[in-house]
Design brief:
The protein has helices at residues 20-37, 45-80, 89-112, 114-120, 139-149, 151-155, 159-171, 194-201, 218-223, 246-263, 267-275, 285-293, 304-326, 333-354, 362-378, 382-397, 399-411; strands at residues 2-5, 8-11. A two-stranded antiparallel sheet has the order 1-2. Helix content is 61%, strand content 2%. The protein is mainly alpha-helical. It is built from 17 helices and 2 strands.
């Protein structure tokens, strides 16, 4: 793309992968319309907000980690590649099969090993099943997957082939997170279909830890982990999380594992907790930790004001994320950090608002400081700092009244 300015031609380097954000949002909206037309309630407000929040965080983190992953693949390829593979039609097919095979074992071990489940559990917390659930990928999971896929450059697949394949391979799973598509005939014997993946996300006893495949279902059939969809699936964890906290969703199982390790009596038992099955984690840990870290209301009353404020925050965050990804080559590192901090604060804010936490007001101070820092970096004038000091001084002076007014506006007069 070319931009003409002052009779000179400048090359504009846009990150066109940013358009994945509005594309996926469009499919989510389409699925919502189809489900509504069918009279189905496949979407719940809190669930959808939380799913998209996790997805925003993952896309943001990808900005800083994708380059690192490519470097790892290139280093391994240059120093340890067993074969000298060159792109061809057959080798692209071979790479697709190898990628999917490695995914199967990564995914299976992510369910069977406690340490890996800590990274993957976020993907299964939703009690609904729709396209927004596909966004539930954490940066921890991205690092874990990279460790498994690191075998591909060692085999001899070039880093360029690998990253291209991972982009394509990563698109397919989005479309299998839906209840609007039934069984697909002969494709059920070859591909992972929405029906197969509904089984994987179900908490019904007969469906637990089944159908790990990502693109091809052949691995599950080969290794005995395949189950057909018959009984209506019930989605979510076997023990529901019952929290809208963005941070708690990411770290609750890590804390449960550490709690269990701390209270284990022998090193052998500790090793079994960390590297054995997630069932070895103390089932009482969740209740103890929730009482310690999730002090709050037993019931949460939704109001239009509360929901509208969350919707506007998510909408603005998505626009900011899209703009940041599209123009990332032109955004200074300091501004990148500020944008990232602002987005993370907003995601934490939305989760806290859904739980009607009173401390959410203090996040507004944090967001104000981040915004002022960004403005001052771009326009380093004393008037910026002077204005910020005046606003902050006024905020501290009228703190009590401002806080109460803020809570009333957001929660609509709910007792909080």
């Amino acid at each position: 793309m070319l931009s003409f300015l002052n009779n000179k031609i400048y090359a504009v380097h846009l990150n066109y992968l940013a358009f994945a954000v509005p594309l996926f949002l469009a499919f989510m909206g389409l699925e919502y319309l189809v489900a509504s037309k069918q009279g189905k309630t496949y979407f719940r407000f809190n669930d959808t907000v939380l799913n998209i929040s996790v997805g925003i965080a993952e896309r943001l983190a990808d900005t800083f980690t994708v380059g690192l992953f490519y470097f790892v693949y290139r280093y391994l390829y240059e120093h340890y590649a067993v074969f000298n593979i060159r792109p061809s039609v057959l080798l692209w097919v071979a790479l697709l099969l190898c990628t999917d095979f490695v995914w199967y074992w990564y995914h299976r071990l992510a369910h069977e090993v406690t340490l890996f489940w800590c990274a993957h559990v976020v993907h299964h917390q939703s009690e609904e099943f729709n396209y927004t659930v596909s966004a539930r990928i954490t940066v921890f999971q991205a690092f874990l997957r990279t460790g498994f896929w690191a075998v591909l450059p060692v085999i001899g697949f070039p880093p360029g082939m690998i990253t291209s394949m991972l982009l394509v391979h990563g698109l397919y799973p989005f479309f299998i997170h839906t209840r609007t598509i039934g069984k697909l005939g002969i494709l059920e014997y070859i591909l992972v279909t929405p029906s197969h993946h509904r089984v994987h996300h179900a908490s019904n006893p007969q469906y637990l830890d089944r159908n790990y495949g990502d693109v091809f279902i052949i691995w599950d059939k080969l290794f005995g982990t395949f189950t057909k969809e018959e009984e209506e699936p019930v989605y979510g964890l076997t023990k529901p999380l019952n929290s809208n906290s963005f941070l708690w969703q990411h770290f609750h199982f890590v804390l449960e594992m550490l709690y269990s390790v701390r209270h284990a009596r022998t090193w052998r038992e500790r090793f079994r907790i960390v590297f054995g099955k997630p069932d070895n984690v103390d089932p009482a840990a969740r209740a103890v930790l929730e009482e310690r870290f999730l002090i709050g209301k037993d019931t949460v009353t939704e109001t239009p004001k509360l929901n509208n404020y969350v919707i506007w925050q998510i909408a603005v965050t998505l626009v900011l994320l899209f703009s940041f990804l599209l123009l990332e080559h032109y955004v200074p590192v300091f501004i990148q950090v500020c944008i990232s901090m602002l987005i993370v604060c907003t995601l934490i804010n939305c989760g806290a608002i859904l739980e009607q936490k009173r401390w959410v007001f203090y996040l507004e101070y944090a967001r104000f400081v981040i915004l002022v820092s960004s403005v001052y970096y771009c326009w380093p004038q004393p008037v910026v700092l002077l204005g910020a000091v005046v606003v902050m001084a006024g905020g501290f002076y009228f703190h009590g009244a401002l806080r109460q007014r803020y809570l009333d506006l957001v929660y609509g007069g709910i007792e909080n």
